[in-house]
Specification:
heterodimer, A: alpha/beta, eight-stranded mixed β-sheet
Chain lengths: 537, 470
């Protein structure tokens, strides 16, 4: 140091020292500290450290990814994020916050060319099972080599990305444990790619095993992304005395017609021997959105009525709406999550019992279990501290019946051993996984109901909370997630000799093109959704 | 890489400072700065870093050439070379797409429009090297014989990507001989953190609102949203840009450089002319010294000179007609002020001339923001309330949800911070205990500001909405 530097006043020396040591110390910690690989609250896998190659360097991808990785996987990320959200909440007066592309809903907009729209069932794709097997394997290999949707974006249009990632997520098995246990570790894409490519293409069981590890990548309990929506409103809504978030409904009637069309096709294919039920259930936005914000959300009631009006008389419509609406002062939906509660699902069950000619047991006959501190998907998607500060109480009801579950392989539907209906250890952001252990699992539940009836339920994540009630009404319950299924549904229903079939979807799902597309695929493809993914390309 | 980035603040900067101060002699220190600067630049431009070096070599040689032939006519060739090559680089990388697509639409042709990504900072460093060669030719600057020292001038990372446009003459002496006292270091840190705060807190949050309000389908959602959007954008662009300049100046100080100031509270101006003396000062003075005055300044065809300068000022900001429109808009206003409006503005109460400036600045930013002309027109229509409601719930709740930030942004557009510091300095002059106390409070608040900014930066990758709608 020069003489001049030595003469500097003490304050300047001390403050310089403070700042240099601060950024250096934090810098060192950021290098040595443990970096997370998964964000629990955002429900996503964080960036991975990029590999340096000449190509990735000169394209600028390496440095860009390195930068993203460094920030994305900063030690204690979720905690820092919470602090960050808290700071942001101090930037203004707490007021309703809109997330996503929220637009005023034009009720006259019934979907493009709605007037002329007539539902035409897509043609049977007719691929053989053998080729389908190979295709599934291929789809898995491809999808796992392109982990982040982002990296795929460069080479494939978006529609394909969703399909591919679904193919991956559709594999059940150990994935479910990721859904429910916080300690479960996700596997990096590198590992997966290696495993997958090392198995012979025809060896489907091997490829499945390896694919198990990838299943957790995108799918947790019901990804909001999947549903056509109009954004999320937080803090403008009160539910059961606390501030809450709701997902704004943005359906259109054309999709509703399409949904009804495919359900009708199922009924026609299944014939008189099988009862086909359809139940589209409302979500929280329908009952708790204040009047002044109604213009930002479409009416689910109208959307549901529209679908029901397009259903053929042979399909039995279940009016869950009225039953739920009659109890809307009860805790039917989560404040911090886009799902309904077990109580909400119970009233849908009551409505369903009316439709099947049974009497639902009173809730008092169930054993009630309660968990505190649930902060769900709406927080994950908005990061809004209001939700974090108003956690939900998570309650579920153990049915008064003797029942046991077993898990089925998602393609072959071969039993894979016992499976609990309630996963009482599911905690944190994954608490909704208490029901069935999350999505992407196919179940067969056997009970002592003694009604002589067996039912196949096609559902998305709303169904998870509903399924357990069915053990009092059916001897056998087959649970199929619409988004992940490797067989032709009609053949499947016939082959197991089910007496009843229920399509259970929330209003968003029944208006979402992609989901309806999956129901169509289950109908038209001999290999279900997962096998058809590849064929469709 | 940008300054408002965890990797930069917590890895690049401390490492650079450490290695820099481990070295004792100037050559090594300059070497460290060059290495880090090229690293910094290649982080964002792994390929086009060669352009930067190329531009430096060209003007280094031009300087030598001019020196060799000083006094002879041929020396001017050095200047011509510099202009042709640097403006050629700008032309190819920044304007070729724009020029060709205009030619296509004008003559109905269909040349392939080149899709060259604009190399970061090219608009800044080409201007710097041009200014060097011209200054050498005018004998205002001494020729630099050491290429590395010249490369340092061109590539210094803190002013490389977003200015200020540093004149060689301003820092020639410091490249060869400079010192950094503890005062320089601490004030450099403070300045850096203030800049960071401007960028990460004020610019980013007003920017978020601006994007929310100004991204619309056919029309803005309400008159309130249109005006708020434009106001938020005005705040964003000021804090973004001046925050960057603050960070650059602060870091310069940490390494012993005194860079020129670039902003001087532009929004407190009372006329467009004054605004441009306070906004991006290094660019304004560049055009003054290297275009306006050589063309004849106010001595001959002043109108033409002004028109050219403002056309170029607009064009410099981007290869799109709206920037040219924006430049000419200010050109027209400044010409009007020169001939008659200026006298009027002086006569009326200051309050009204402030309002005048704010309004023309807001409309100026409306031109600047929209590259798409039809969107621009929709926004302007919206601002005048054509066919849209006065207010809407989303706009109101967005504004409420960020009201303190907006208030802070408006306050910090005025020189309150400087006034407060001066006031405190006067108050604490007599008592050393008070002085220490105020210094400690200042230091602690800067540290808190740094932590807050860092936390907000963690959240910048938070983006679950990326694929919100399929």
């Amino acid at each position: 140091m020069s003489d001049k530097e030595k003469k500097s006043n003490k304050f300047a020396v001390i403050s310089s020292a403070v700042f240099i040591s601060f950024i250096s110390a934090v810098g060192i910690y950021f290098i040595l500290g443990e970096r997370p690989s998964v964000s629990e609250s955002e429900k996503r896998e964080l960036e991975t450290m990029p590999v340096l190659t000449a190509e990735s360097y000169f394209s600028g991808e390496y440095t860009a990814k390195l930068d993203r990785w460094y920030t994305d996987t900063v030690p204690f990320r979720d905690t820092l994020m919470e602090l960050s959200s808290f700071i942001e909440s101090c930037f203004g007066i707490s007021s309703p916050q809109f997330y996503g592309d929220v637009a005023v809903i034009d009720e006259t907009d019934e979907g493009e060319d709605y007037e002329d729209y007539e539902y035409i069932l897509p043609e049977f794709t007719g691929i053989t099972s053998d080729s389908a097997v190979e295709e599934i394997t291929e789809a898995i290999t491809e999808a796992s080599s392109a982990t982040a949707a982002e990296s795929v974006t460069e080479t494939a249009p978006v529609s394909e990305i969703t399909e591919v990632s679904e193919a991956v997520t559709s594999v059940p098995e150990s994935t479910v444990s990721t859904d429910i246990s916080e300690s479960a570790v996700m596997v990096t894409s590198e590992t997966v790619t290696e495993t997958v490519t090392s198995v012979p293409e025809t060896d489907i069981s091997a490829s499945e095993t390896s694919a198990e590890t990838t299943a957790s990548e995108a799918e947790f309990n019901g990804n909001i992304n999947e549903f056509l929506n109009n954004g999320i409103l937080v803090d403008g809504v009160d539910m059961y005395g606390e501030k809450a978030g709701v997902m704004l409904f943005g359906g259109n009637k054309k999709q509703g017609t399409r949904y009804a069309g495919i359900i009708n096709a199922y009924k026609e294919a299944l014939g008189e021997d099988v009862n086909v039920y359809n139940m589209v259930v409302p979500t929280s936005v329908e009952f708790y959105l204040p009047q002044k914000y109604q213009k930002y959300s479409g009416s689910e009631k109208e959307a549901i009525e529209h679908i029901y009006s397009k259903l053929s008389e042979d399909v039995i419509s279940v009016d869950a709406y009225s039953e739920i609406a009659a109890h809307s002062d009860e805790y039917l939906y989560f404040r911090t999550d886009h799902h309904w509660t077990a109580r909400g699902a119970y009233y849908a069950y009551v409505a369903f019992c009316n439709a099947i000619g049974q009497q639902a047991p009173s809730l008092d006959e169930y054993e009630q279990v309660t968990k505190e501190g649930y902060v769900g998907s709406l927080y994950g998607y908005t990061g809004d501290i209001t939700l974090k500060n108003n956690p939900d109480t998570f309650t579920y009801f153990l049915p008064p019946a003797v029942y046991s579950g077993e898990r089925l392989d998602y393609n072959t539907l071969v039993s894979q051993g016992g499976w609990r209906v309630f996963h009482e250890y599911a905690s944190g952001v994954n608490m909704y996984g208490t029901f069935l252990g999350g999505d992407n699992v196919h179940l067969k539940i056997t009970s002592d109901a003694g009604t002589g009836r067996s039912i196949v339920v096609f559902k998305e994540s709303y169904g998870n909370a509903f399924i357990p009630y069915l053990v009092n009404s059916f001897d056998t319950v087959y649970v199929i997630d619409i988004r992940y299924f490797g067989k032709n549904a009609v053949e499947y229903i016939k082959s197991i000799g089910a007496t009843d079939v229920l399509f259970l979807n929330n209003a968003f799902a029944a208006n979402t093109s992609q989901l309806i597309g999956n129901i169509e695929l289950l109908y038209t493809s001999p290999t279900g959704v997962t096998g058809a993914v590849k064929a469709k390309k | 890489m940008v300054f408002s980035n965890l990797l930069f603040i917590y890895l690049f900067l401390p490492l650079c400072l450490l290695l820099y101060y481990i070295c004792k002699n100037r050559t090594y220190r300059n070497g460290i700065l060059i290495i880090f600067s090229l690293l910094f630049y290649s982080f964002g431009e792994p390929v086009w870093v060669v352009l930067l070096i190329f531009s430096a070599i060209v003007d280094y040689l031009n300087g030598l050439f001019i020196e060799k032939y000083r006094g002879k006519k041929i020396a001017v060739l050095g200047v011509i070379m510099s202009l042709v090559i640097n403006l050629g680089l700008l032309g190819v990388f920044k304007y070729s797409g724009f020029i060709i697509s205009n030619i296509n639409s004008l003559f109905g042709l269909s040349f392939d429009v080149p899709q060259l990504a604009l190399p970061i900072g090219i608009s800044f460093y080409t201007f710097q090297t041009i200014s060097y060669t011209v200054d050498v030719y005018r004998d205002k600057a001494k020729v630099q014989h050491n290429f590395l020292d010249f490369l340092l001038y061109v590539s210094m990372f803190f002013q490389l990507v977003a200015g200020p446009i540093v004149r060689y003459t301003d820092i020639a002496a410091e490249i060869e001989e400079r010192s950094c006292t503890a005062e320089d270091m601490s004030s450099g840190f403070f300045r850096f953190i203030i800049g960071l705060g401007k960028k990460v807190i004020l610019a980013n949050f007003t920017g978020k609102l601006a994007t929310a309000f100004l991204t619309f389908g056919d029309m803005p959602s309400s008159v309130l949203a249109a005006w708020s959007g434009v106001i938020m954008y005005s705040l964003q662009i000021y804090f973004d840009f001046s925050g960057y300049s603050d960070m650059a100046i602060g870091m310069g100080r940490m390494f012993g450089f005194n860079l020129t100031e670039n902003f001087n509270y532009p929004y407190i101006s009372k006329s467009a002319s004054e605004f441009w003396r306070r906004w991006h000062m290094s660019l304004g003075s560049f055009f003054r010294d290297y275009v306006y005055i050589p063309m004849g300044g106010n001595r001959r065809h002043q109108l033409l000179n002004l028109a050219v300068v403002w056309f170029l000022t607009g064009l410099w900001h981007g290869a799109s007609w709206n920037y040219i429109l924006w430049g000419l808009y200010f050109g027209v206003l400044i010409i009007c002020e020169k001939y008659f409006l200026g006298k009027l503005l002086e006569k009326i109460p200051a309050f009204f001339s402030h309002i005048y400036l704010l309004i023309i600045a807001l409309f100026g930013w409306t031109l600047f923001y929209f590259e798409d002309m039809s969107e621009m027109i929709s926004c302007l229509k919206g601002m005048f309330g054509q066919g849209i409601p006065l207010s809407d719930d989303i706009a109101v709740s967005e504004l409420k949800g960020s009201c303190f930030i907006i208030a802070a942004a408006v306050i910090f557009c005025c020189p309150v911070y400087k006034a407060a510091r001066d006031k405190i300095a006067v108050l604490t002059e007599k008592s050393s205990a008070l002085k220490i106390c105020s210094q400690v409070i200042y230091c602690v608040s800067m540290l808190i500001l740094l932590i807050v900014c860092s936390l907000l930066l963690v959240k910048q990758t938070y983006n679950p909405f990326l694929y919100f709608r399929y």
